[in-house]
Amino acid sequence: MDWSQSLRLIAPEETLSLAGLALLLVAAWAGDKAARAISIAAVSVLVAVMALVAPALCNGAMGPETVAFAGQMTADAFASFAKLLIYGSAAVALVVAPSFFERVGAMRAEYPVLILFAAIGTGMMVSAGDFLTLYIGLEMNSLASYVLAAFLRSDDRSAEAGLKYFVLGALASGILLFGISLTYGFTGTTSFAGVHAALGGGLNTGMVFGIVFVLAGIAFKIAAVPFHMWTPDVYEGAPTPVTLFFATAPKVGALGMLMRVAIVAFGSAAGAWQQIVIFAAVASIVIGALGAIGQRNIKRLLAYSSINNVGFILIGLAIATPQGSAAMLTYLAIYVAMTVGSFVVVLMLRDADGNPVEDLADVAGLSRTQPLLAAGMAIVMFSLAGIPPLFGFWGKFVVFQAAVDAGFVPLAAIGIAASVIGAFYYLKVVKVMYFDEPADKVAGERELAHTVLLVGTGLFLSPLGYLLTKWLGGLSGAAALALFHFA
Question: What is the domain partition of the chain in residue ranges?
Answer without folding.
Answer: 3-484
